[in-house]
Here is the input.
Amino acid sequence: MKVQSGIFLRMFLLFSLLSFGCNAADKNEFKVIPLTKLEAAFNQFKEPAITHRRFKHADIQPLIEKHKGAFEISELGKSIEGKSISNLKWGAGKTKVMLWSQMHGNESTATMALFDLFNFLGASGDEYDELRNTLKTELNLSFIPMLNPDGADAFKRRNALDIDLNRDAISQISPEAVVLKSARDSFEPTFGFNLHDQQVYYNVKGTPKQAAISILAPAYNVETEVNDVRERAMQTIVGMNEILQQVIPGQVGKYDDEFEPRAFGDNIQKWGTSTILIESGGYTNDPEKQYIRQLNFMIILNALHQIATEAYTQYNTDQYFSIPDNGIQLMDLILNEVQVKVGEKLFPVDLAIRRRESEANGSYFVSGSVEDLGDMQVFFGFEELDATGLTFTPGKVYEKVFENVEALDEAQAMELLKQGFMAIKVKNGEARQLHGLPILVLKSTNTFSSGWMTGSTPNFFLSKEGALKYAIVNGYLIDLEKPKEQEFKQRIF
Here is the structure.
């Protein structure tokens, strides 16, 4: 019996140790928030007052005020034009995390996601209470949702002094830079989230896939070494990428980590805060970045949970470096093998076209430009056309003058295009007035820019043996035989 009891005791202890090991593993697995819960949380707590990316400082003030009960709200300082820069604090934990957005005024995607996150953190009495309690007891969060309100109101990158705040970490010429540096120094966060937008032409290097989200653990020195501080940022990014690969596989890129001595991200990393850069890029059929807003909400919430539970420590730097790099090989439109005439000879060239946004009356229009030409095989187009056998053909201005832009509808505009008219004239219309017609509208001029060389405005036709096949209007491709539905963002010239 003693022998049997000894065997039983040893077996019991072994079973207990094995069971503890299994529970520890299960606990570690449990630290990953299920994707379905992240998606459901966004849909439930999305801030309904923000529906587009061109909101202003005044628009977010009531949204900040409504969180007074759940957050500690303060003013950190003022912008050059005297607008308040607000800080929202939440949580009572030992691990401090600071998140700042809209350092560049026209980079507002993550700001939207922060207001969604405020709604989530400030709620209670639902299935997310356990998650909130974990965050609240483990983390001390500090949010600066709009660091550059003057730039946000003008929807431009720089501040009212025309300084790029992300190159003002050392000199601190701008009051907004002073605010961010002071906030970091007084709070002394362990983790920092540096939230930005990038241009939509970034791709995952070597692929045609658009980089919807790009990430970086910035370098803290010229040698781009990895210390404990930077390693924590890298590990956190791997956890974010794990979520992203489930919803946007192959659409996450990694920024070049060359050290920039003036940048806030690099210096905050250097000052001892594990800094995670998130850059919101582009996504198909998401011009207002509402889906990328959702992605920001999901990966930030998941990252905060992994920081609170230290689940980020399960990842390593090799996994971070395996994330593919960013490229910048995307174009709005690539026309392959267009026949252009020089002298009496025709030459086949590829044309690469981009359409860039400009502000107008609280909205925006696009301006097309021939970005490059020649052999464009290393680039990828959101749209591509094999134009073999098609010839560059100039367009004409329709002789009849319309009363205003409303006097013409889309069907009439298409008919004029088919006849070779690239533009119409109007008597009345405001300067820079926007319209959505697939044709150029002229008021203060009788001519329009056109060409195929670099820097030219792409307004022309493609013809075959004298018959018009395609129109390229301000960089938009229109199949004259089978036009597709598309949104035109143009202005009166």
